[in-house]
Design goal:
mainly beta; 20-stranded antiparallel β-barrel; 1 helix; 68% strand; disordered N terminus
Length: 433
């Protein structure tokens, strides 16, 4: 698998290099390097001596992975004004073998018409955490975009597919599938109006060769509204409603549901260095025949008001509370309220990017395990949490770049047996040519 990716890298990079000699915007860029990451989770688990319960002990599951990576990005001109872009990346390591290819073909046959074709091929073998899983995914996508003469509105038609196959000694959950999808979008943004509008309708059809009772069709309706506010502010509403129905008669309700999501944002500048922001979201599922164990109705609501300060030396700081509620009418044990304080510091300077995001808060379940009988040990327990995420993309001497990412989380539960922590850290070092 990786040898195929390496062959594509060498062959296509040779073609791209030849094109790069032409007096246009063609180029070929290479990356060679390595990546390493560590993941660890700590939790309590039951232990036994033969069939005798010996108590609960703190356990951990550290996983270390290292790999070499090679990649090429290329672009060039094709006949009749068309262009191509290529991304080919190969990874070979002690746990992961992967080849990823993405080719974008674009043409503008007329001033108001744009055509594009984007096939993606992703092949991997992953042996992380003691598993052995092989995947092959091919995702082609074709798009036609039509602009009006005044460029105030446009139509966008997308047609695509998804062919996915998986195998391996530990693969028991993810099913092979064949899928097709289509989307039609209309957008309007007249220059004289503060409003921008976008409407869309799409459908996905998925077939599962090994489990035909999972075959289903999913329809989507989407609406986006944007408006300019006084003093340079903006507001946006983005909503999508989905309906999934099974093609064949099946007793399970898992593929018979409505789902939807609404996101709202507002930005109001107070000063050239200070902006008030509001982030709202609503997400939920409603099943045709809901149960109280797995496929239950729920609605999740979040509100995140913040202030964003622009500081010296290209630093930006965003801070504010975050409120979250989960409503599950028929499952009281799943309902919770959460409040947290969040801080994000970010710097984009001379091609380098730093981002650090700590947070801390409390999640309160309506029915906490600490207040109920031990006969129901699987119920959630209210807890205090502390977490942090960081990312850095840094340029180094000698055309090298280093990317760092990491996250850590600790949960202190009312029921101490549910205490848990997790850690992830990754470093990626590459040299460009």
């Amino acid at each position: 698998m990786v040898s195929l990716g390496a062959a594509l890298v060498l062959g296509l990079s040779w073609v791209s290099t030849a094109r790069a000699q032409a007096p246009d915007t063609s180029y070929a860029r290479f990356e060679v390097g390595g990546t390493s990451d560590v993941t660890n989770e700590r939790f309590y688990e039951d232990t036994f001596d033969d069939t005798t319960f010996t108590g609960r002990h703190f356990a951990s599951s550290p996983e270390y992975r290292s790999a070499g990576v090679a990649a090429v990005d290329a672009a060039g001109a094709l006949p009749r004004g068309a262009r191509f872009k290529l991304r080919q990346e190969a990874t070979a390591g002690d746990r992961l073998l992967r080849s990823y290819s993405r080719l974008e073909l674009r043409a503008d046959p007329r001033e108001n018409t744009r055509l594009s074709l984007v096939p993606e091929l992703d092949m991997r073998r992953d042996r992380s955490f003691g598993d052995d899983r092989r995947e092959v995914r091919f995702r082609p996508e074709a798009r036609v975009r039509l602009l009006t003469t005044e460029h105030a509105s446009d139509w966008d038609l997308l047609v695509g597919g998804d062919w996915f196959r998986t195998s391996g000694s530990s693969e028991l959950v993810t099913l092979d599938h064949n899928a097709g999808r289509a989307w039609l979008r209309w957008a309007r943004s007249p220059l004289e109006s503060p409003w921008e509008t976008e409407l869309g309708y799409g459908a996905d059809a998925r077939a599962f060769p090994d489990s035909t009772n999972r075959d289903h069709v999913e329809q989507h309706g989407a609406l986006t509204l944007r408006r300019l506010l006084p003093r340079g502010g903006t507001a946006m509403l983005d909503a999508q409603l989905d309906r999934r129905t099974a093609i064949h008669s099946t007793p399970s309700t898992r593929d018979h549901f409505w789902s939807g999501r609404v996101d709202g944002t507002a930005f109001v500048p107070f000063h050239e260095t200070l902006t008030a922001e509001l982030w709202l979201s609503l997400d939920g599922y409603g099943y045709d025949r809901a149960d109280t164990s797995v496929y239950f109705d729920y609605t999740e609501v979040t509100a995140h008001p913040t202030f964003h300060w622009t500081l010296a030396h290209d630093w930006g700081v965003r801070a504010g509370p975050r409120f979250e509620w989960l409503f599950a009418p028929d499952v009281p044990a799943e309902r919770y309220r959460q409040v947290s304080a969040m801080l994000e510091a970010e710097r984009l300077h001379l091609g380098n990017w730093w981002s650090i995001s700590p947070a801390a808060g409390w999640r309160q379940y309506d029915h906490s395990a600490s207040t109920l009988s031990l006969a129901e040990p699987d119920l959630h327990s209210s807890y205090l949490f502390v977490e942090a995420e960081m990312f850095a993309d840094l340029g180094l001497p000698g055309r090298a770049r280093m990317r760092l990412s990491g996250s850590a989380r600790y949960e202190n539960h009312e029921d101490p047996s549910q205490n848990a922590s997790s850690l992830y850290f990754s470093i990626d070092l590459r040299r460009g040519f």
